[in-house]
Write a structure and sequence with these properties.
Blueprint (H helix, E strand, L loop, with lengths): L8 E6 L10 H21 L4 E6 L23 H12 L3 E2 H5 L8 E2 L5 H4 L2 E2 L2 E5 L1 H5 L1
Parallel strand pairs: 1-2
Antiparallel strand pairs: 2-6, 3-6, 4-5
Helix pairs in contact: 1-2
Length: 137
């Protein structure tokens, strides 16, 4: 990306995991995501390029996990979590990976147990979300 002028803002984040979902950790995660949505909405008003980068602890879709059924009740894959992530995209942010490929199996994390890496039993929980100015710059 070449900046014509101004700044490029990068927010690096580590979103709470939220597990186990039947504890106060999950509402905390959702509240954190709500604050991220508000932060992003405000950043977009500046019409500057910015990137949200990091471990969102969100599996956005079934194609982003090796075995969706195994993650159905997990805080990373619950419908409310995925809806909150989609709300960020609904603001006009671009999922950088999905802007270039719709291919399933593009993972960013593999458990250290049971040979998950070797078997490619992964999940996609790390993301780069781009403002319109960053996506087209």
């Amino acid at each position: 990306m070449t900046l014509k002028s101004g700044v490029l803002r990068i927010a690096c984040l580590y979103l709470p995991n939220g597990n186990p979902p039947d504890t106060d950790k999950y509402p905390y995660k959702l509240k954190w995501m709500s604050r991220l949505l508000e932060y992003s909405r405000e950043r977009l008003k500046a019409e500057e390029p910015f990137i949200l980068a990091g471990d969102f602890n969100v599996i956005p879709a079934a194609g982003d996990v090796y075995n969706p059924a195994a993650w159905a009740g997990d805080a990373l894959f619950r419908p409310e979590t995925r809806e909150a992530f989609q709300s960020l995209l609904g603001l006009g942010l671009t999922d950088a990976l999905r802007a270039v490929t719709d291919a399933p199996g593009q993972y960013t994390f593999w458990d250290y147990q049971a040979g998950a890496w070797q078997k490619n039993w992964g999940i996609r929980i790390d993301h780069l979300l781009l403002s319109p100015q960053a996506a087209t710059g």
